[in-house]
TrEMBL record:
Lineage: superkingdom: Bacteria
One Pfam family cited in the UniProt record for this chain: Peptidase_M78
Domain (IrrE N-terminal-like) ranges: 20-114
Record InterPro entries: IrrE_HExxH
Organism: Candidatus Nanosynbacter lyticus
Protein name: IrrE N-terminal-like domain-containing protein
Length: 159
């Protein structure tokens, strides 16, 4: 835990800046398009602020449910771009798309998507039938996958 305190935007300021969104404490950072609620775990580091701005970007870009996993990477990338270009400067947060932390977020997302596309029987890459089901073209196994509840698959340090 970093003991140095730096001036960070607090949650009340952020709530004030986005009156059209609801903010609630949650287990992880996430965005619920149905209730227009952003859940935040805490707001005590740059990492937390970056993740919160990323969720706000999902809200501002009106990201809802997706049908195919392949769309997820584009959704994640566009939310980071919006967070970096439009939101971070307002909170004096220096973030760049080529920051290793952002790239690692996207890489971990790609890895996670790849793993869930692998057939549990034969390890071939399956074809996604709908948002919750994959089918293997080699052995015809079908398997179900969960919707991603959070963008925060892994924690990376943003310096
Ligand atoms: Zn298979
Ligand atoms: Zn995201």
């Amino acid at each position: 835990m970093d003991a140095t305190t730096m001036p960070l935007a607090n949650i009340n300021k952020i709530k004030h800046d986005f009156p059209d969104l609801n903010f609630e404490k949650g287990e992880t950072f996430s965005w619920d398009p149905n209730s227009r609620t952003i859940y935040y775990e805490k707001l005590s580091s740059k990492q937390d602020l970056a993740q919160l701005l990323h969720e706000i970007a999902h809200a501002k870009l009106d990201h809802k449910n997706y049908q195919r996993d392949i769309q997820l990477i584009d959704i994640e990338r566009s939310a980071w771009e919006y967070a970096i270009n439009d939101l971070a400067p307002k909170y004096s947060l220096k973030l760049k798309m080529d920051d290793s932390a952002i790239q690692e977020f996207l890489d971990s997302y790609r890895d996670w998507l790849h793993k869930r596309s692998l057939c549990p029987q034969c390890d071939a890459v399956g074809l996604q039938k709908d948002n919750a089901t994959y089918r293997c073209l080699s052995c015809s196994t079908e398997w179900r996958v969960n919707q991603a509840k959070s963008c925060q698959l892994k924690r990376y340090q943003i310096k």
